[in-house]
Design a protein that fits this description.
This protein has 9 helices and 23 strands. The protein is an alpha+beta fold.
């Protein structure tokens, strides 16, 4: 081992599912894939120093819900334990993150895919693939040095809750011509890069950027969206064996600038733009002075957060039975069918939310230290404002936010966002956490980072 006293390993595993595994559609919610546009991967990186270790896995996935194995089991903890079995990995030091790409299987938990026998069997395979990637990364450890870089990628993303003079909310791709935008919303255009240059082995890097991969969502082809394009281009540029993990930033309210096209050319364009920013960051990292003995560590806290207000199960069941009857009694060729279906869908989404229950929710907040880099992991879609607030307060020289990590609790909306309304705080399984609770989660992440960098 070199004087850095650091070892870094990486692995990349194909996790492209069978076409029978559903994606999250509009109607039906469990829609069927018809082909593969580009493969999905899980990339893992392991960091081991003399005083600690940390591991990060990034999967091309919509999310990784803790209940994917059904009631009474924890998907995240079971993957961690499988990865640790036969290796020196510490389960408590592993972050399991999703890129949040939407043209992937419905592993977010909006629907209960584990109730289907074929999906339940595949989820066991997926868990083994994720654990296997981490175990392979552990066995791949090589002496390494760490350095940091970054860049700005402008013109690719925009806030999807920009406000016009009438108080209406829009994303850039859906803004009417008569809308006079008075509040463009928060936007983070920074790409952060950690580069691990290894002795006798290809480099490993972690890239972080905040933007929803929704360019081609709700369509029948499997795709990693623009993060897949970007990581492929970067790995090609760095040579055989290079591994680029993409970590989704605080993008709860950030979309691609042309988010209504469903255009594969846009996917490639965003991927090229993001890859350019990552490569620029790699150049900066190569020119930067690496740390001689970078500290590696991890911390985690499980918070009890309040569930958002919702109807009781009795109320939800009655409403569901009512709309189901109305829909069944309305001919599909009737002019009233579209309205009946729309009302039924709203109630179905509310019913799924109620199924989670009204009890407080356990939310794991996790932090990693990789030299001068701090990573704060959240089990939901953190709004940009909260991510920027954490970055500003972080004691780390550079901080990444890893949303959709270690579970899926939906949008993590700041208090002002609740007051503004909109889809993200609607009655559905995409918004489970009560108003004011995301701020507590950010405070917990800040304390964890302080413990790693100031303790």
């Amino acid at each position: 081992m070199s004087s850095s006293k650091l070892a870094v390993g990486a692995a990349k595993v194909d996790i492209t599912p069978p076409l029978s595994i559903p994606y999250l559609g509009f109607h039906p919610r469990q829609a069927k894939f018809e082909g593969v546009h580009d493969p999905l991967y899980a990339r893992a990186a392991v960091f081991e120093g003399p005083q600690g270790q940390a591991a990060l896995l990034s999967a091309d996935a919509l999310g990784l819900s803790r209940d994917l194995f059904g009631e009474g089991r924890d998907f995240i903890d079971e993957v961690r334990e499988r990865a640790a079995d036969g290796t020196g990995l510490d389960p408590a030091a592993i972050v399991l993150a999703a890129t949040h790409s939407h043209s992937t299987p419905e592993t977010y938990g909006i629907t209960r895919i584990w109730e289907r026998e074929d999906c339940a069997a595949w989820l066991q395979v997926l868990a083994d693939q994720l654990a296997g990637a981490l175990a392979m990364a552990w066995r791949d450890r090589r002496p390494a040095i760490l350095s940091l870089g970054g860049a700005r990628v402008s013109g690719m993303s925009g806030n999807r809750r920009m406000r016009d003079h009438q108080g209406r909310l829009f994303s850039m791709g859906r803004k009417p011509q008569d809308a006079e935008i008075v509040d463009p919303g928060c936007l983070d255009e920074q790409v952060a890069v950690l580069l691990a240059q290894r002795e006798g082995a290809a480099p490993v890097l972690i890239a972080n950027f905040a933007c929803h991969p929704v360019t081609v969502q709700v369509q029948e082809l499997i795709s990693a969206d623009f993060p897949g394009v970007a990581t492929r281009l970067v790995e090609q540029a760095l040579g055989d064996g290079a591994c680029c993990l993409f970590v989704q930033g605080a993008s709860g309210d950030i979309n691609p600038i042309r988010d209504a096209t469903r255009d594969w050319r846009d996917v490639d364009t965003y991927g090229v733009m993001l890859a350019g920013g990552i490569l620029h960051g790699i150049g900066q990292a190569r020119l930067a002075q690496p740390l001689d003995a970078p500290l590696i560590g991890s911390g985690s806290r499980r918070l009890s957060v309040a569930a958002r207000e919702a109807p009781t199960m009795q109320e939800a069941t009655a409403r569901k039975q009512e709309v189901d009857r109305t829909l069944a009694d309305t001919p599909s060729d009737s002019p009233d069918y579209a309205q009946a279906l729309g009302q039924a869908r709203q109630v179905w989404e509310m019913y799924r939310l109620v199924q989670f229950g009204a009890e407080p929710i356990e939310a794991e907040i996790q932090a990693l230290r990789l030299g001068d880099l701090g990573i704060a992991a959240f089990p939901g879609e953190l709004f940009c404002e909260l991510g920027m607030r954490l970055k500003s307060a972080s004691p780390a020289p550079q901080t990444m936010v890893a949303e959709c990590s270690n579970g899926c609790l939906g949008y993590l909306v700041p208090e002002k966002g609740w007051d503004d309304g909109g889809y993200e705080v609607g009655l559905g399984a995409w918004c489970r956490v009560a108003k004011g609770e995301p701020e507590k989660m950010v405070a917990a992440a800040q304390e964890l980072l302080q413990g790693l960098f100031e303790g």
